[in-house]
Amino acid sequence: MSVKVWKIYGPGRWNSVCFIFNTPIISGYFFVLCFGWISIKKAGLMLSLYKKINFWLQNNERVAIATVIRTWGSSPRPIGAQMAVSENGAFEGSVSGGCVETAVIETAMDVLRTAHSKHLKFVVGDDDAFSVGLGCGGKIEIFVQSFQNSGAQKELLDRVLAKETGLYVISLKNGVSNNDDSFITKREDCNKLPAEIRGKCLKINASLEFSSPEFFENSKKDTLFLLPVLAPFKIVLVGAGHIAINLAELATILDYEIIIIDPRKILATKDRFPRAESIIPKWPQEAFPDLNLHKNCALIALSHDPKIDDPALEIALKTKIMYIGALGSKRTHKQRVLRLQKAGFSEEDIKRIHAPVGLDISAKTAEEIALSILAELIAVRRAS
């Protein structure tokens, strides 16, 4: 087991030194000791976070939510990262990857007691950055507010749980309730915002599939934070073989929504894909009309059978889907290219297919191939 030290410099009583224990006892987890607290944390994403918030609210627990609104330099978590805290001290999500969480939890409990929101600012010094895996020091600004099961926050919660899009606008004022927050689902709602930001709102609202959170401040000292609410990234796996099993498991860790399509009913089962959102034991041409394929989707053909893979690829190439991949060797793909050309697809169309699918990491096993595919998909998403 290794131990690292992380010094965090924050306002007043939140200065701290944290010890980070990296242990193989529980794979994927790390232990952080701050102020005598021991926290066990594994990163969560928006859907998981809001499911937990909903659980607390349904059990009549008050909830506070912390949002990273600005960062400078090398920050452990990006802007828009969130952590929720219940009145009982339980928490979900992450705003820093470890040590700052202790101070944020203290502040969240204070927010719940006073009903006043608060700003927090922290600095990771250059001398300490390497010990937490950063290339250089950085700053992080966090806004902590209560979360109400009403108004804009209720709409935010409902939208996330329904996997629908929208734009949550946080009014960044210390010591006020959340009455000035708003949730935008239509372009005309942007008119409710200050004039200087309406154009930005319209731009974000028109392209919610790729929008990033943004901090806004104008000469009138209006300070807002725009948090796009995105539907989960959807991956359609055509072919329910062993690689698909491993790929589905890896992808769900990232909160990607998995859909399995395979006419071979003996393979397309809930036992084999327990975490899949949907399993469709049909031919692709029968299954795809019921799917809403858009830019925030990927399709990966894994069956190794042209009778299954080719119809799926042909349908995908006619959409704006972000990522299309196909399993098979270079020789197999050359034959596939000829079939697609015969079906009327241009060279430019066919270049959209990542084949052989996956980053070249010399993968051999099904698990390694699944990892290489997911890595390539992530690379394409981040580059878009």
Explain what the structure shows.
The strands form 4 sheets. The protein has a 6-stranded parallel β-sheet with strand order 16-15-14-17-18-19, with helices on both faces. Strands 7-6-5-9-8 form a 5-stranded antiparallel β-sheet, sandwiched between helices. Strands 1-2-3-4 form a 4-stranded antiparallel β-sheet, with no helix packed on it. It is α/β, with parallel strands linked by helices and 384 residues long. The chain contains 11 helices and 19 strands. It is elongated and about 65 Å long. It has helices at residues 46-58, 100-114, 126-129, 151-161, 195-206, 242-253, 284-287, 306-317, 330-342, 347-350, 366-383, and strands at residues 2-8, 16-22, 30-34, 37-41, 63-73, 82-86, 91-93, 118-124, 138-147, 166-171, 182-184, 214-217, 223-229, 234-238, 257-261, 278-280, 297-301, 323-326, 353-354. The protein has 3 domains: 42-147, no CATH class; 151-229, no CATH class; 234-383, NAD(P)-binding Rossmann-like Domain (Rossmann fold), CATH 3.40.50.720. Helices cover 31% and strands 27% of the residues.
